Amino acid sequence: MKLLFLGTGSAFTTGADNYHSNMVLFSPGGSKLLIDCGSDARLSLQEQGLTYKDIQHVYISHLHGDHAGGLEWLGFTHKFDPTMGRPSLYIDDSLTKQLWNQVLAGGMRSLQGEIASLSSFFDVQEVNANGLFMWDNLKFRTIQTVHVMDGFKIVPSFGLIFEVSGKKIFLTTDTQFAPSQINDFYDAADLIFHDCETARFKSGVHAHYTELSTLSPEVKRKMWLYHYNPHNPYDAVADGFKGFVVKGQEFDFTDENIY
Question: What are the backbone dihedrals phi and psi of residue 27, each rounded to the nearest 5 degrees, phi first?
């Protein structure tokens, strides 16, 4: 089981030096799960020798463009290729209507001879709150994180925790620095991939490097950082982390040396 980072950058990453923080999980049997599909996914996939034909399954953590903006491309490429079926789309059930009505419908609703819906393009697999989903015999638990406050309402992102060869991997997706909410998952995980902002000015909607640096040495020793800004003056290894993930980096979860 391997995880390939198509990119490790923030929403404002530009150019081929880095792409949005989307990734592909490869199963031993050859199946591929795209974890988030940002607006530059078609480019980052191509750079890794992959096309839409390789993506039959996709998980969406939340609705920002760097995580869901490429779904129009993915949906249309499958729809108009008669050799392809609808990709499976795994998404928290609280996000499904918003994904279609607020993100995709404007560009995808009108088809020749058809008024389309989300299911016209994707085999939608809704995940219940505090639920799980199965992909290629692997169990994923979704973890709600605090990403943005929309007025008086939390707009969450949903991270993932899953187990491979007895080791637990925690992927935060986008999150504010909220150790009191997710510390139990830090402790339970053997390997952590964590959202990390490195901008000069904190946005308040991502965990900033200076905040993550206050975590215990035990937690930092198992934490890789990603989703960072082009401005990155920090030395993560020197500060006790595993490091910053780089574009194209691959993690083989069956290799004991990565833990």
Answer: -90, 160
